[in-house]
Amino acid sequence: MTVEHVLLNCPKWSTxxxxxxxxxxxxxxxxxxxxxxxxxxxIRMIQQQRLQGSSGNQEEEEDRMEEEDRMEEEDRMEEEDRMEEEDRMEEEDRMEEEDRMEEEDRMEEEDRMEEEDRMEEEDRMEEEDRMEEEDRMEEEDRMEEEDRMEEEDRMEEEDRMEEEDRMEEEDRMEEEDRMEEEDRMEEEDRxxxxxxxRREMKKGGLYE
Length: 208
Fold this sequence. Notes:
The protein is an all-alpha fold. The protein is built from 5 helices and no strands. It has helices at about 5-10, 15-20, 25-35, 40-55, 60-205.
């Protein structure tokens, strides 16, 4: 197996091919191979040496160079396709990340709005409870005031009636005292009249 055969059929360099080719290579080819410029540069070196050594094989060399150019074009196109695929995948990843972030933002906004609604509802209910409590306390105060006023009126009425009863009792007692006094005076007058009649009768000899 010649160096040209190995390099042309195995254009991508490897350690195994290096071990196979080195014993058959010229110094210039070995320098190219070991300098990591790749097998394609070595192929070109071989092709140049062969063209210089034998013009009868020119057609074959041209075919090989065309094949090499074709392979290089294929490699270039493969590399372009690979890079395009990488770019496409990166773009997909970027768009997915954008979508994910937008979804996160949307969910955060929903959560924020829900929290705002919840807090507003809590505030509304607290305000309703506060107003209801105020109304209840006002109603209690109003009823207490009504009860107090009713109690005052009741006590005033009781006092008025007691005062009326007391005055009536005083009037009754005064009337009784007056009547008793009148009776007493009438009795005294009657007694005096009776006493006077006896004296007259005594003077007239009616009494022994």
